[in-house]
Specification:
Helix content: 25-40%
Radius of gyration: 24 Å
Number of helices: 12
Oligomer: single chain
Shape: elongated
Number of domains: 2
Distance between the termini: 41 Å
Largest sheet: 9 strands, antiparallel
CATH class of the largest domain: Alpha Beta
CATH architecture of the largest domain: 3-Layer(aba) Sandwich
Number of strands: 23
Structural class: alpha+beta
CATH superfamily of the largest domain: Zn peptidases
Length: 485
Amino acid sequence: MALMNKLYPENVWKIFHELTQIPRPSKKEQKAVEYAKQFGKRLGLETIADKTGNVIIRKPAIKGMENRMGVILQAHLDMVPQKNNDKVHDFEKDPISTIVDGEWIKADGTTLGADNGIGVAAALAVLEATNIRHGMVEVLLTVDEETGMTGAFGLEKGLLQGDILLNMDSEDEGELYIGCAGGMNTSGTMKYKEVQTPPGMKAYRLSVTGLKGGHSGLDIHLGRGNSNKIMNRFLWTAARDHDLRISSVEGGNLRNAIPRESFAVVVIPEDKAGEFGRAVKQFAETCKSEFAKPDPGLIFKAESSEMPSMVMEAKAQADFLKTIYGIPNGVMRMSVDIEGVVETSINLSVVKAMKGEATALCLLRSAVDSAKQSVANMTQSVLELGGMKVQHDGNYPGWKPDPDSKILKVMKQVYEKKYDKTPEIKVIHAGLECGIIGAVYPNLDMVSFGPTIRHPHSPDEKVHIGSVGKFWDYLLETLKEIPVK
């Protein structure tokens, strides 16, 4: 905190630090909700908490700015809880420990929560400031954005009064986003029979670790390893070549993060231990070679384990391994309209098999609803061929770009005047809440922007200090230039 106090803008960093001290993983952000409510009430501002848990705080226009269009500053309160395997941290109880690392702020072995804590801090700092020019400002802080867009989906008509929505959940300073992909969860579950572990077996614990992971939308095109796919690739081959039997598999834990780690407890016949060890070593070298550039930290290894009493029944194991192998993963199609932008993708987020139940969870994204549905159908077909029961949920729309947006024109002009260069206008292959909010409030004029954040949804997450200052200054200049009603 002492180091953060010296950073610009002090008010934004002060509030961000306070947020890092409040546990707020998705679906467990009630303390952050209470913090925001008390923040508004302490300032004597109209403060509303809707039935979903979203917080709305209104600040009247300053004198002389009453004729400007109302602005909604929007961010989400929750954060993605990810940590390194050797880090002891309870995201429901422990504060985030922050580190100043040169030009960056990062956390000590966990996600930082700059996604979207910096946006929340900037919005609240506007409410607290007494020396800035602005028309009527509403702050909308939503809940559970990261695991289901619950807050945005629960937003009711008639609560918001503003005309313009500035979403502050983007992660590249100097870029303005005017569209985003929609998303959907597709999951498969199956019950399977367990049988007693055959005699004469040797037990191992397999692990895939050291991957970068990252945001399953923003980073999906980087070719990083998916721990679930890597683990299953080895299991599929070893089951055929070495009579491997599976006791349990567990990989990934968040739908919107590229899975970084996977673990399996397996057994093989004792007389095949030597050739199995050689296969492990060869596979580790193969993976190191394949992922040398995108994931140089990848580690695949096998360690001796206690003998499990039960393993998957042979046919169920074969069906499970074929199913996981067959599920598509990664970029499915690049946009034909916008060069360099992913149109459609799928992330095999979570794979588990233990105690007679197996699960596979995928997050599908696309800027084209029909393409998203096609990938959902493809994934459903693979899951059903493997005997899994399929469920689709969490479907949310994309945000269709409006190149004629009035606030976009204003923000371009402000940026060009202030920084003597033109901001990049983009769409993003990630789920922003704008599409959902826009469906409830179709007349809102919307733009998304933010400071520079790298590696969100992973323990490598960090925010660039200087970009936060530029983001703040740009926000204040934009508020000054909001059009007249």
